[in-house]
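Question: does this match?
>
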Amino acid sequence: MTPTSAIRGLGLLSGILLVLTGLTPLPAVAAAGPAAAVPAAVAAADPPILTDPVVHDRVVSDVPVPWTAQILDGKTSSVAETGKWVVVGGVFSQVAPSSGSPQLTRSSVFAMNATTGAINTSFAPSVSNGQVRAVEPGPIPGTVYVAGSFQGVNGVNRKVVLMDVSSGAIVSSFQAPSMNGAVNDLARVGDRLYVAGVFSSVGGVAHGGLVALDANTGARQNFISVQLTENQNYTGLDGQARAPVGAKSIAVTPQGDQMAVIGNFRKADGLERRQMALLDLTGSSATVRQDWRTDRYAPACFSNAFDSYVREVAVAPDGSYFLVVATGGPNPGTLCDTATRWESSDSGQDVQPVWVDDTGGDTLLSVVSSGAAVYTGGHQRWMNNEGGRDFPAPGAVPRPGLGAIDVETGVPLAWNPGRSPRGVGAEAAYVTDAGLWIGSDTEEIGHHRYHRPRIAFFPLAGGTVLGAGSTGSLPSNVYVGPAPQSSGTAGDVLYRVNAGGPELPALDGGPVWSGDDGTSNPYRNDGSNSAPWPAGGATVDGTVPASTPPEVFDSERWDPGARDDGGEMAWSFPVPSGEEVEVRLYLANRCSCTSEVGQRVFDVEIEGNPVLVSHDMVADVGDQVGTMKSFTVTSDGAIDLRWLHRVENPLVNGIEITEHLPEETVPESRGFTRVWYEGGPVVENPAPAPAGDIDWTQVRGAVVIDGELFYGMSDGRFFRRQFDGADYGVARAIDPYNDPYWSNINTGSGQTFRGVQPSFYSQLASLTGMAYDDGRLFYTRAGTNRIFSRAFSPDSGVLTQVVQEVPGFAPPSLGGIFLDEAGEFLYYSNAVTGTLSRIGWTGNATVGQPVLVSGPEIDGMDWRSRAM
């Protein structure tokens, strides 16, 4: 694919200019064979160095049209549309119409009608000794540049030729100079043709991988003299792969002011630029941007196999960003086997991509942006697979050989036609006003669903319009779920212990969680051990109160002894005799050594009575999951607890003892309600809201995006359905990781295409709130006072595994959240007091100071809820 394939050329405009000046709109051509000397047409004025971009308003259909021609062998490397023709280049010898017959001989390039697929029988160039690596629309509709590693075309020994597609003849007025290496890519912008490859000399003049030619005559221009030098990985050591130095792919902004070049090089004009450089094209000659450098492509990716691993660069229709895809193998932490977005306006000596989409070990070969989506091709099994190493890691979704990515976030969209078998990969991706062309070395779209040998066209018609991501603005109805019921009716906190760990601050204004990381503790016997665990490694279930810091599960106290050895771990807390208390035990299995059911089993006694018998934490809630067990007991002067061995060693992560309130003081649970809200104190009483068939007591976080309700459930499931404020559509489970079509199909590499749910699903039971803004799903969790977020696509339902936190924002007892788009405010509740506050919001961070706006003591409104 030509990296500027997202850009329509000036062919139509040039044609009009030629007509207006009385010049012939057709190029000078020669019959097949050596080009005849024909004077070049002289335009009345230089065309502007601007291009008209292709911009789609939707994602293309996932069903390829049936009328495309067939390529019967080899592979497709590049596609271009010019006039009424689509020209396809690569390495092949036989083509056929969509019916499969008759078979026609073609030498690595052919043309078909762009709307019917009918093969142009007049266009049959003879390409000698090499392959066609790039085709690019010519300066006049119906003409095309053909370039590659070949010796020549129709007996004309050049690496770049201009051809008239209707006649199949070479345009003799275009005569490119000789080049001593292969051409990999072309990009025409106005009257200039940029050529990229692995040459070092053009017309006898030194050009290290880049040169500019006159788009009409082929004459070498002095505009680019940037030299790409030195191998990326190869340093002369045995076993290192070595490839020619130069440019692999280029992309030029439609304004003609910047070029991105990628390839096998370490330096550009002597400046360190590992595999990628940006060029400034605004002056009298092109220069390497000294204010732009990235080292993200500096690491080697299996240097025994790859000297360079970048494969293609493309540009946004508006020129605001560049896209790069790469091969390289599974090397987590690098940009091997990734798609990335780079802002063209960024600067610095350590520029980072805006987003990275990782395949987890599979090659990406092609990329293009339509403005509505970024399309990638390769032989990938999955995308969104950060952390994968030839296997699906949490977050991975099936995307066999093809994928569409959200332009802003890099999250995979729902478009998923796939290619199975995957072959070496889809090397060409090209957008036109009518849709998307994909070229590859395989014959099937889907798993043998659509037979489209080596070239397929996905039309814009029938595609999907993506939502704007609107979540509503105040004033409006705000829907509030039932108030959460405490697992115990707790009063004042008497004791809190972070077993085996340091002191932790309280989240609710109560007493701190006292540290227990020393040998002795006044509340327990000696002989037990403490163990720290990686921070944040455990999720929590719905039993854990919002007032419990999740760090409680980052340490434990465990007993290394044996049952009835006289030293079983025991605790004793003084409490006045006759006082009724609630004892809360916090438990989580964090050791991988006991991650299976039956590997750790123990008993717990309180006041000599068994409260947990043969308790298996993994069987109860799973591995790496924090839970809370609550027991109401009456003190005899002290609350005594004892842990007893059965299998492995018993443990505890935290202990909390609170007063137990009489039942009559427990407030009655509020149902699902709605309240008209304008941003301050509530002025109208809340009213019952239509609940549909949803059990709102089990809902864990909810948000409406573009008229669709997204919500989690306490059992770890995630749903979506239409909701207009009164009526609900059919509930659909959100689980793109276990795609019903692809999950059980074999990849051909020893597994199926099934992905893996991200950790968000195991956290759903603990969610207390959910909001969406600018491509990210924000959420709160019981037991923490922070807001978390993940990149999220409402189109596909895909979430990333990577989690971010809203910086510098940690209010006590954080509960539910919602965003006011118009006012640019974040509203959040207090899970203990039921108040509602607001603070300024910038899209991913808070600004200013919070303001208390509503609550039981202000207007009688209680905002405690797990869905708001």
